[in-house]
């Protein structure tokens, strides 16, 4: 099970939000390269970056920070937030991002998603499915649709998507534990996709529970860990040694 340390970028800084709310922001580092270097030294091979400005505004001022993180070397990066046109996807992939995460437009325009998969390949594109009470949220989690997360995931799988990142909004940043039932239901719904679980991971027991889920559902490929790293409730080096 791959562990993806998360770095959320807003105005060039490393922040965390509670349940995706822009008014519930904690700044952890003015320079996001600092935590990136720390997670690299702890042994991670992957980082999960979120461009919050892109997610909320649809445009980004964080690409330079992304480039500086990638320049550390020996790190693979997946990035989401505001990638709502082909040019934006191409720009981040050209900057060295390994996997671009699309969300809002993927929900609205399946043909666009199919075109991205055909152009860049299924290993370079992931679809982020963010859900509140099982319903898909878009545009930085501001708009809740009537589409269920499971239905969207099945549709994406049928289009050729092979990476799904499923975030349970209610648990994200809340330090309350992951929604294991929702993640299990997602794993069962998309057997042909690799699933990365996100939201609520707080301590080593949560990692143990997700690792057990991955043992029963081999398509559960990884887990995103965010606030717990910054609050010190999970030791990344120990987690990597134990679960990866």
Structure characterization notes:
There is one protein chain. With 244 residues, the protein is of the alpha/beta class. The chain has a single domain (2-243), classed as Aldolase class I (TIM Barrel, Alpha-Beta Barrel), CATH 3.20.20. The chain has helices at 33-42, 52-57, 63-70, 86-94, 104-108, 110-120, 149-159, 180-189, 204-216, 227-231, 236-243; strands at residues 2-10, 13-18, 21-29, 46-51, 76-80, 99-102, 125-132, 135-138, 143-148, 163-168, 194-198, 220-225. Strands 1-4-5-6-7-10-11-12 form an eight-stranded parallel β-barrel, surrounded by eight helices. The longest helix is centred in the last third of the chain and has 13 residues, at 204-216. The chain is globular. The termini are close together. Belongs to the HisA/HisF family. Keywords: Amino-acid biosynthesis, Cytoplasm, Histidine biosynthesis, Isomerase. Pathway: Amino-acid biosynthesis; L-histidine biosynthesis; L-histidine from 5-phospho-alpha-D-ribose 1-diphosphate: step 4/9. Its EC number is 5.3.1.16.
């Amino acid at each position: 099970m791959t562990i993806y340390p998360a770095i959320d970028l807003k105005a060039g800084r490393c922040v965390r939000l509670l349940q995706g709310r822009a008014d519930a922001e904690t700044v952890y580092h003015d320079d996001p390269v600092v935590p990136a270097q720390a997670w690299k030294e702890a042994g991670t091979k992957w980082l999960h970056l979120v461009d919050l400005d892109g997610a909320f505004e649809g445009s980004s001022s964080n690409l330079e920070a992304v480039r500086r993180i990638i320049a550390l070397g020996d790190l693979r990066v997946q990035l989401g937030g505001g990638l709502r046109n082909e040019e934006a996807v191409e720009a981040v992939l050209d900057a060295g991002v390994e996997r671009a995460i699309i969300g809002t437009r993927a929900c609205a325009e399946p043909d666009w998603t199919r075109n991205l998969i055909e152009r860049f390949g299924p290993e370079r594109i992931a679809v982020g499915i963010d859900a509140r009470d099982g319903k898909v949220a878009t545009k930085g989690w501001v708009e809740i649709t009537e589409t269920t997360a499971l239905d969207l995931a099945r549709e994406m799988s049928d289009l050729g998507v092979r990476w799904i990142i499923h975030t349970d909004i209610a648990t994200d940043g809340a330090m309350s534990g992951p929604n294991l039932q929702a993640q299990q239901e997602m794993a069962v719904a998309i057997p042909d996709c690799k699933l990365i679980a996100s939201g609520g991971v707080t301590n080593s027991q949560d990692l143990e529970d997700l690792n057990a889920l991955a043992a029963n559902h081999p398509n559960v490929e990884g887990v995103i860990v965010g606030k717990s790293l910054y609050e010190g409730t999970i030791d990344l080096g120990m987690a990597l040694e134990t679960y990866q």
